[in-house]
Amino acid sequence: MTTRLERLLTMEELIRRGRYPNVDTFCEMFEVKTRTVYEDIRSLKERMGLDIAYDRFKNGYYNRNPGKVLPPFELTNGEVFALTIGKEMLATYTGTSFEPILRAALEKIYDRLPDRVEVNIDELRSMIRFKPLAVIPLQRKLFLDLNRACEKLQPIEIQYYAPSTNETTERRVDPYRLVEHHGTWYLIGWCHLRKALRTFALHRIKECRIQDARFTPIEDSEIDGWLKSAFMIEHREDEHQVKIAFSAPAARYIRERNWHESQKLTECEDGSCILELTAQSLEEIQRWLLAFGAEAEALEPQELRESMRRTLEAAVGRYRV
To answer: 0.70 cut: is pTM over it?
Structure first.
Protein backbone atom coordinates (compact mmCIF):
# COMPACT_ATOMS: atom_id res chain seq x y z
CA MET A 1 0.00 0.00 0.00
CA THR A 2 1.36 3.42 -1.00
CA THR A 3 1.67 6.41 1.30
CA ARG A 4 -0.18 9.63 0.59
CA LEU A 5 3.06 11.35 -0.41
CA GLU A 6 3.77 8.62 -2.94
CA ARG A 7 0.24 8.98 -4.34
CA LEU A 8 0.63 12.72 -4.76
CA LEU A 9 3.98 12.34 -6.52
CA THR A 10 2.59 9.73 -8.91
CA MET A 11 -0.59 11.70 -9.60
CA GLU A 12 1.38 14.87 -10.34
CA GLU A 13 3.69 12.98 -12.70
CA LEU A 14 0.87 11.38 -14.69
CA ILE A 15 -0.94 14.70 -15.01
CA ARG A 16 2.26 16.54 -15.97
CA ARG A 17 3.02 14.01 -18.70
CA GLY A 18 -0.31 14.66 -20.38
CA ARG A 19 -1.84 11.24 -19.68
CA TYR A 20 -5.18 12.83 -18.72
CA PRO A 21 -5.86 10.47 -15.79
CA ASN A 22 -9.24 10.72 -14.08
CA VAL A 23 -10.65 9.77 -10.69
CA ASP A 24 -11.37 6.19 -11.75
CA THR A 25 -7.76 5.84 -12.95
CA PHE A 26 -6.38 6.85 -9.56
CA CYS A 27 -8.93 4.79 -7.59
CA GLU A 28 -7.92 1.65 -9.47
CA MET A 29 -4.20 2.44 -9.36
CA PHE A 30 -4.00 3.13 -5.62
CA GLU A 31 -6.99 1.06 -4.44
CA VAL A 32 -8.52 4.04 -2.65
CA LYS A 33 -11.99 5.59 -2.52
CA THR A 34 -13.24 8.40 -4.75
CA ARG A 35 -13.27 10.84 -1.84
CA THR A 36 -9.56 10.18 -1.20
CA VAL A 37 -8.67 11.01 -4.81
CA TYR A 38 -10.63 14.28 -4.73
CA GLU A 39 -8.86 15.26 -1.50
CA ASP A 40 -5.47 14.50 -3.10
CA ILE A 41 -6.28 16.58 -6.18
CA ARG A 42 -7.40 19.45 -3.96
CA SER A 43 -4.07 19.23 -2.09
CA LEU A 44 -2.14 19.38 -5.37
CA LYS A 45 -4.07 22.49 -6.37
CA GLU A 46 -4.46 24.38 -3.09
CA ARG A 47 -1.52 23.32 -0.94
CA MET A 48 1.07 22.71 -3.66
CA GLY A 49 -0.03 25.44 -6.04
CA LEU A 50 -0.42 23.39 -9.23
CA ASP A 51 -2.77 24.69 -11.94
CA ILE A 52 -4.69 21.45 -12.44
CA ALA A 53 -7.96 21.44 -14.38
CA TYR A 54 -10.39 18.83 -15.73
CA ASP A 55 -10.85 18.37 -19.49
CA ARG A 56 -14.41 17.15 -20.18
CA PHE A 57 -13.63 16.05 -23.74
CA LYS A 58 -10.59 13.95 -22.77
CA ASN A 59 -12.19 12.86 -19.50
CA GLY A 60 -9.12 13.56 -17.41
CA TYR A 61 -6.98 16.06 -15.52
CA TYR A 62 -4.21 18.16 -17.05
CA ASN A 63 -1.83 20.90 -15.97
CA ARG A 64 -2.74 24.27 -17.49
CA ASN A 65 0.71 25.56 -16.61
CA PRO A 66 3.22 22.74 -17.43
CA GLY A 67 6.12 24.94 -16.32
CA LYS A 68 4.81 24.94 -12.78
CA VAL A 69 6.14 21.92 -10.86
CA LEU A 70 6.10 20.78 -7.27
CA PRO A 71 8.34 22.97 -5.09
CA PRO A 72 11.00 21.63 -2.72
CA PHE A 73 9.47 20.62 0.61
CA GLU A 74 10.55 19.36 3.99
CA LEU A 75 10.72 15.74 5.06
CA THR A 76 12.00 14.22 8.24
CA ASN A 77 15.05 11.99 7.95
CA GLY A 78 12.75 9.14 8.87
CA GLU A 79 10.46 9.95 5.94
CA VAL A 80 13.40 10.09 3.56
CA PHE A 81 14.56 6.71 4.85
CA ALA A 82 11.09 5.20 4.45
CA LEU A 83 10.73 6.54 0.92
CA THR A 84 14.10 5.19 -0.20
CA ILE A 85 15.80 2.29 1.54
CA GLY A 86 12.86 1.45 3.76
CA LYS A 87 10.22 1.44 1.04
CA GLU A 88 12.39 -0.51 -1.38
CA MET A 89 13.22 -3.06 1.30
CA LEU A 90 9.55 -3.32 2.25
CA ALA A 91 8.60 -3.88 -1.39
CA THR A 92 10.99 -6.83 -1.50
CA TYR A 93 9.06 -8.59 1.26
CA THR A 94 5.51 -7.54 0.39
CA GLY A 95 3.21 -10.48 0.91
CA THR A 96 5.63 -12.35 3.15
CA SER A 97 5.57 -12.73 6.91
CA PHE A 98 8.13 -9.93 7.18
CA GLU A 99 5.96 -7.15 5.77
CA PRO A 100 4.27 -6.18 9.08
CA ILE A 101 7.54 -6.58 10.96
CA LEU A 102 9.39 -4.26 8.57
CA ARG A 103 6.54 -1.75 8.69
CA ALA A 104 6.81 -1.65 12.48
CA ALA A 105 10.58 -1.23 12.24
CA LEU A 106 10.23 1.67 9.79
CA GLU A 107 7.76 3.38 12.12
CA LYS A 108 10.25 3.13 14.99
CA ILE A 109 13.03 4.58 12.82
CA TYR A 110 10.68 7.35 11.71
CA ASP A 111 9.90 8.26 15.33
CA ARG A 112 13.58 8.44 16.31
CA LEU A 113 14.79 10.67 13.46
CA PRO A 114 13.12 14.04 14.04
CA ASP A 115 15.55 16.29 12.13
CA ARG A 116 14.06 17.83 9.00
CA VAL A 117 15.71 18.17 5.61
CA GLU A 118 14.68 19.83 2.34
CA VAL A 119 14.10 17.45 -0.55
CA ASN A 120 13.73 18.27 -4.24
CA ILE A 121 11.18 16.19 -6.17
CA ASP A 122 13.63 15.24 -8.93
CA GLU A 123 16.19 14.18 -6.31
CA LEU A 124 13.56 12.13 -4.53
CA ARG A 125 12.72 10.22 -7.73
CA SER A 126 16.38 9.31 -8.27
CA MET A 127 17.08 7.97 -4.79
CA ILE A 128 18.32 4.50 -3.89
CA ARG A 129 16.77 1.46 -5.54
CA PHE A 130 17.12 -2.22 -4.72
CA LYS A 131 17.09 -5.11 -7.18
CA PRO A 132 15.69 -7.84 -4.96
CA LEU A 133 16.40 -11.53 -5.37
CA ALA A 134 13.59 -14.02 -5.68
CA VAL A 135 11.93 -14.11 -2.27
CA ILE A 136 10.51 -17.45 -1.12
CA PRO A 137 7.04 -16.94 0.38
CA LEU A 138 6.75 -17.80 4.05
CA GLN A 139 3.86 -18.67 6.28
CA ARG A 140 3.39 -15.70 8.59
CA LYS A 141 2.23 -17.89 11.48
CA LEU A 142 5.23 -20.20 11.14
CA PHE A 143 7.69 -17.33 11.24
CA LEU A 144 6.04 -15.70 14.26
CA ASP A 145 5.85 -19.04 16.08
CA LEU A 146 9.55 -19.71 15.48
CA ASN A 147 10.48 -16.20 16.52
CA ARG A 148 8.51 -16.61 19.76
CA ALA A 149 10.11 -20.01 20.41
CA CYS A 150 13.58 -18.44 20.00
CA GLU A 151 12.74 -15.64 22.39
CA LYS A 152 11.14 -17.86 25.05
CA LEU A 153 13.68 -20.70 24.72
CA GLN A 154 11.02 -23.26 23.93
CA PRO A 155 11.96 -26.42 21.99
CA ILE A 156 9.98 -27.30 18.89
CA GLU A 157 9.05 -30.47 17.02
CA ILE A 158 9.01 -30.14 13.25
CA GLN A 159 8.50 -32.15 10.12
CA TYR A 160 11.36 -31.18 7.83
CA TYR A 161 11.72 -31.87 4.12
CA ALA A 162 15.27 -32.35 2.75
CA PRO A 163 15.43 -31.98 -1.06
CA SER A 164 18.86 -33.67 -1.15
CA THR A 165 17.29 -36.96 -0.02
CA ASN A 166 13.67 -36.19 -0.97
CA GLU A 167 12.66 -37.28 2.53
CA THR A 168 10.64 -35.74 5.37
CA THR A 169 11.83 -36.44 8.90
CA GLU A 170 10.60 -35.68 12.41
CA ARG A 171 12.98 -33.42 14.34
CA ARG A 172 13.13 -32.01 17.86
CA VAL A 173 15.02 -28.72 17.74
CA ASP A 174 16.16 -26.12 20.26
CA PRO A 175 15.67 -22.92 18.18
CA TYR A 176 18.39 -20.32 18.61
CA ARG A 177 18.20 -17.75 15.84
CA LEU A 178 16.49 -16.77 12.56
CA VAL A 179 18.86 -15.81 9.74
CA GLU A 180 18.21 -14.39 6.27
CA HIS A 181 20.52 -15.32 3.40
CA HIS A 182 19.98 -14.28 -0.24
CA GLY A 183 16.21 -14.01 0.10
CA THR A 184 15.79 -17.26 2.06
CA TRP A 185 15.13 -17.48 5.80
CA TYR A 186 16.70 -20.14 7.99
CA LEU A 187 16.35 -21.35 11.55
CA ILE A 188 19.59 -22.07 13.40
CA GLY A 189 19.10 -24.60 16.18
CA TRP A 190 20.32 -27.70 17.97
CA CYS A 191 18.94 -30.80 16.27
CA HIS A 192 18.37 -33.62 18.77
CA LEU A 193 18.24 -36.15 15.92
CA ARG A 194 21.69 -35.22 14.55
CA LYS A 195 23.11 -34.15 17.94
CA ALA A 196 24.56 -30.99 16.40
CA LEU A 197 23.81 -27.46 15.27
CA ARG A 198 21.80 -27.45 12.07
CA THR A 199 20.34 -24.99 9.57
CA PHE A 200 16.68 -25.41 8.61
CA ALA A 201 15.14 -23.52 5.67
CA LEU A 202 11.82 -22.16 6.90
CA HIS A 203 9.94 -22.95 3.68
CA ARG A 204 10.89 -26.64 4.09
CA ILE A 205 9.36 -26.91 7.56
CA LYS A 206 6.06 -28.68 6.91
CA GLU A 207 4.76 -28.68 10.46
CA CYS A 208 5.86 -27.02 13.70
CA ARG A 209 4.73 -27.66 17.26
CA ILE A 210 6.06 -25.56 20.15
CA GLN A 211 6.72 -27.63 23.27
CA ASP A 212 5.73 -26.64 26.79
CA ALA A 213 9.31 -26.70 28.10
CA ARG A 214 12.48 -24.62 28.16
CA PHE A 215 16.00 -25.32 26.97
CA THR A 216 19.34 -23.85 28.04
CA PRO A 217 20.76 -21.71 25.21
CA ILE A 218 24.37 -21.73 24.08
CA GLU A 219 26.49 -18.57 23.91
CA ASP A 220 25.84 -16.15 21.04
CA SER A 221 29.56 -16.19 20.25
CA GLU A 222 29.35 -19.93 19.58
CA ILE A 223 26.48 -19.42 17.13
CA ASP A 224 28.33 -16.54 15.46
CA GLY A 225 31.45 -18.66 15.07
CA TRP A 226 29.44 -21.54 13.65
CA LEU A 227 27.76 -19.28 11.09
CA LYS A 228 31.07 -17.73 10.04
CA SER A 229 32.64 -21.14 9.50
CA ALA A 230 30.36 -21.79 6.51
CA PHE A 231 31.28 -20.44 3.10
CA MET A 232 27.75 -19.10 2.71
CA ILE A 233 25.12 -20.89 4.79
CA GLU A 234 25.58 -24.66 4.44
CA HIS A 235 27.46 -26.77 7.00
CA ARG A 236 28.97 -30.24 6.85
CA GLU A 237 30.91 -32.39 9.29
CA ASP A 238 34.33 -31.99 7.62
CA GLU A 239 36.31 -28.93 6.57
CA HIS A 240 38.06 -28.68 3.22
CA GLN A 241 40.94 -26.53 2.07
CA VAL A 242 39.71 -25.10 -1.22
CA LYS A 243 41.94 -23.63 -3.90
CA ILE A 244 40.50 -21.97 -7.01
CA ALA A 245 42.17 -20.28 -9.98
CA PHE A 246 40.30 -17.39 -11.60
CA SER A 247 41.09 -15.93 -15.02
CA ALA A 248 42.04 -12.26 -15.32
CA PRO A 249 38.49 -11.12 -16.23
CA ALA A 250 36.95 -13.04 -13.31
CA ALA A 251 39.72 -11.96 -10.93
CA ARG A 252 38.58 -8.34 -11.25
CA TYR A 253 35.33 -9.33 -9.52
CA ILE A 254 36.92 -11.72 -7.03
CA ARG A 255 39.19 -8.94 -5.71
CA GLU A 256 36.20 -6.73 -4.95
CA ARG A 257 34.81 -8.85 -2.13
CA ASN A 258 35.84 -10.61 1.03
CA TRP A 259 34.38 -14.04 0.35
CA HIS A 260 35.34 -15.69 3.63
CA GLU A 261 37.27 -14.88 6.79
CA SER A 262 39.77 -17.64 6.04
CA GLN A 263 40.49 -16.55 2.48
CA LYS A 264 43.94 -15.93 1.04
CA LEU A 265 44.25 -14.22 -2.34
CA THR A 266 47.38 -14.67 -4.47
CA GLU A 267 47.89 -12.34 -7.42
CA CYS A 268 49.42 -13.64 -10.65
CA GLU A 269 51.46 -11.66 -13.19
CA ASP A 270 48.93 -12.16 -15.99
CA GLY A 271 46.15 -10.54 -13.96
CA SER A 272 44.60 -13.79 -12.81
CA CYS A 273 44.42 -14.80 -9.15
CA ILE A 274 44.20 -17.83 -6.88
CA LEU A 275 41.70 -17.86 -4.02
CA GLU A 276 42.24 -20.19 -1.07
CA LEU A 277 39.78 -20.67 1.79
CA THR A 278 38.34 -23.17 4.24
CA ALA A 279 34.87 -24.49 3.48
CA GLN A 280 32.61 -27.20 4.81
CA SER A 281 30.15 -27.72 1.96
CA LEU A 282 31.83 -28.54 -1.35
CA GLU A 283 28.37 -28.64 -2.96
CA GLU A 284 27.91 -24.98 -2.04
CA ILE A 285 31.35 -24.10 -3.42
CA GLN A 286 30.57 -25.96 -6.65
CA ARG A 287 27.27 -24.13 -7.22
CA TRP A 288 29.11 -20.85 -6.72
CA LEU A 289 31.92 -21.79 -9.13
CA LEU A 290 29.54 -22.89 -11.87
CA ALA A 291 28.36 -19.30 -12.18
CA PHE A 292 31.86 -18.35 -13.40
CA GLY A 293 31.83 -20.91 -16.19
CA ALA A 294 35.20 -21.36 -17.90
CA GLU A 295 36.68 -18.41 -15.96
CA ALA A 296 37.21 -20.52 -12.81
CA GLU A 297 39.11 -23.77 -12.22
CA ALA A 298 38.90 -25.80 -9.01
CA LEU A 299 42.45 -26.85 -8.12
CA GLU A 300 41.92 -28.40 -4.68
CA PRO A 301 40.65 -30.58 -3.18
CA GLN A 302 40.65 -33.35 -5.76
CA GLU A 303 37.12 -34.30 -4.70
CA LEU A 304 35.84 -30.87 -5.76
CA ARG A 305 37.84 -30.94 -8.97
CA GLU A 306 36.40 -34.31 -10.01
CA SER A 307 32.86 -33.27 -9.07
CA MET A 308 33.20 -30.13 -11.21
CA ARG A 309 34.47 -32.21 -14.13
CA ARG A 310 31.54 -34.65 -13.92
CA THR A 311 29.01 -31.83 -13.64
CA LEU A 312 30.45 -29.87 -16.56
CA GLU A 313 30.69 -32.96 -18.75
CA ALA A 314 27.04 -33.75 -18.02
CA ALA A 315 26.11 -30.15 -18.85
CA VAL A 316 27.98 -30.28 -22.16
CA GLY A 317 26.17 -33.52 -22.96
CA ARG A 318 22.83 -31.73 -22.73
CA TYR A 319 23.88 -29.25 -25.40
CA ARG A 320 25.23 -31.67 -27.96
CA VAL A 321 23.42 -31.54 -31.29
So the answer is: no
